[in-house]
């Protein structure tokens, strides 16, 4: 048999006061911002990417490139020197971007990748798909 004071305490503990929030509301997950900047260079524009390329930002990269005027361009270069980490969704986004460029007759090149990003390429088995084209201390990478 439950006594009245025990019932009262259980009822009070089961309700959360309106002024209190759960612990995860006070500590939101960090948002990963992606900075995208064009460095126009005639037939060879360079898109500098900085931030984390993951599930939250991969679609942003694809939409940014798709919404850009690339008429008359033969090569699109992605400068990944500012990309700290590359998730599987970001890798999928890069492959989708490569497909998109191929459909429009553009060549996609990746350059300046940090070692952490290169390790993702190696783990995914895409390091052999990247061919060095020279041009920089780390070299440019041509995707496929």
Task: Describe this structure as you would to a colleague.
The chain has 144 residues and is α/β, with parallel strands linked by helices. A 6-stranded mixed β-sheet has the order 1-2-3-4-6-5. The protein is elongated and about 80 Å long. Helices cover 34% and strands 28% of the residues. It has a single domain (29-143), classed as STAS domain (Transcription Regulator spoIIAA, 2-Layer Sandwich). A hairpin with a 6-residue loop joins strand 1 (34-39) and strand 2. Residues 131-140 have low confidence and may be disordered. The protein has helices spanning 4-14, 23-26, 58-66, 88-103, 115-123; strands at 34-39, 46-53, 75-86, 107-111, 130-134, 140-143. It is built from 5 helices and 6 strands; from the N terminus they run H-H-E-E-H-E-H-E-H-E-E. Helix 3 runs parallel beside helix 4.
Question: What labels describe this entry?
Answer:
single chain, 144 residues, alpha/beta, Transcription Regulator spoIIAA, six-stranded mixed β-sheet, 5 helices, 6 strands
Characterize the main sheet.
6 strands, mixed
Structural class computed from helices and strand pairing: alpha/beta
What best-fitting shape do the alpha-carbon axes yield? elongated
Low-pLDDT regions:
131-140
Fraction of residues in helix: 25-40%
Q: Give the spatial strand order of the biggest sheet.
A: 1-2-3-4-6-5
- Annotation field: number of helices: 5
What fraction of the residues are assigned to beta strands by DSSP? 25-35%
Q: What is the CATH topology assignment?
A: Transcription Regulator spoIIAA
What's the name of the CATH homologous superfamily? STAS domain
**What is the number of independent domains?**
1
- N- to C-terminal distance: 74 Å
Highest CATH level, the class: Alpha Beta
Looking at the overall shape, the CATH architecture is 2-Layer Sandwich
Mean pLDDT: 76
